[in-house]
Amino acid sequence: MKHTMPELPYALEALAPKMSRETLEYHYGKHLQTYVDNLNKLIVGTPYEAQPLDEIVRHADGGIFNNAAQTWNHTFFFRMLTPEQPAMPASLAERLARDFGSVEAFREQFTKAALGLFGSGWVWLVVDKQGRLSIVAKPNAGNPLTDGLRPVLTLDVWEHAYYIDYRNRRADFIAAWWELVDWRKVADRCIPRRWRCKSCDYVYDPAKGDPETGIAPGTFFEDIPETWTCPICGLYKSEFIPLDE
Fold first, then answer.
1. 7 exposure class (CB count in 10 Å sphere: 0-12, 13-18, 19+)
2. φ, ψ at 181 (rounded to 5°)
3. What DSSP string runs through 163-227?
């Protein structure tokens, strides 16, 4: 399986001035490209050659893990950003208040973790199998998938993420990043949603899964393999649409 660069859901200049075009050209266009290229070279002739990216992250180590995790981490980081930030859905605000005390308390704890992570790494908002949210700081290429946790949001605090725009002012970068988070996508990742097939109206319910095709109950739609198809009409996963709760 050849891994490729993900497409950004916005133009390179769309996040400026909080995140400049030049930063995206280097961070996305050069750093991420290097991880993708290295991963493709390293997996040749190994059991990981045919595995999807998330499975490589869960099971590999050494150079393969580092490049696979950095590919996954960066792809997730960029896709959770938006130039037009939506209001935080009430369902997400309620979940954050339940697990952190308030939305503001969550932001303060997350920011503290990002400022306190020594050296390079990532700070994550994750959800466990019981549906509880927590904050996890990981050095280097660390990814919570290796701990059986579901990533909901991440912040890259490697210097290459912010040095062009903010030099050594990590705090200013973090403050700007908060204004780029796509809260709708965050809500989608921590609160299970049902998805409907556009062809036959079959509804995928995360609580039920699709055991006949190996999709266990409790599996988020986003975590289903891209090769999965509608069990009724065979339509591809990409042709499903979310149902608002």
1. exposed
2. -70, 130
3. HHHHTT-HHHHHHHHHTTB-HHHHHHHHS---EEETTT--EE-TTT-BGGGTB-TT--GGGS-TT
Q: How confident is the model at residue 244, as a pLDDT?
A: 65
What's the rounded Cα separation, in Å, for the pair 184 and 86? 7
Nearest residue to 166 via CA among 51, 139, 157: 157
Give the closest residue to 77 by CA, choosing from 132, 121, 17: 121
Rounded distance between C-alpha atoms, residue 192 and residue 205, angstroms:
8
In the numeric block, the tokens 């903010």 are attached to: 166
**Mean pLDDT of all residues in 31-42:** 98
Torsion of CA 57, 2, 161, 137, to 10 degrees: -10
Q: Which residues contact 77 (CB under 8 A, 6 or more apart)?
A: 122, 154, 155, 156
Flag whether pLDDT at 245 surpasses 70.
Answer: no
Tell me 46's DSSP state. S
User: What pTM does this model have?
Assistant: 0.88
Q: Which two tokens stand for residue 238?
A: 């990409």
Instruction: Please give the order of strands across the beta sheet that includes 203-204.
Output: 203-204, 195-197, 240-242
Closest CA to 178 of 151, 152, 150, 155: 155
Strand 133-139 vs strand 240-242: parallel, antiparallel, or unpaired? unpaired
Contact present, 231 and 189 (Cβ < 8 Å)? no
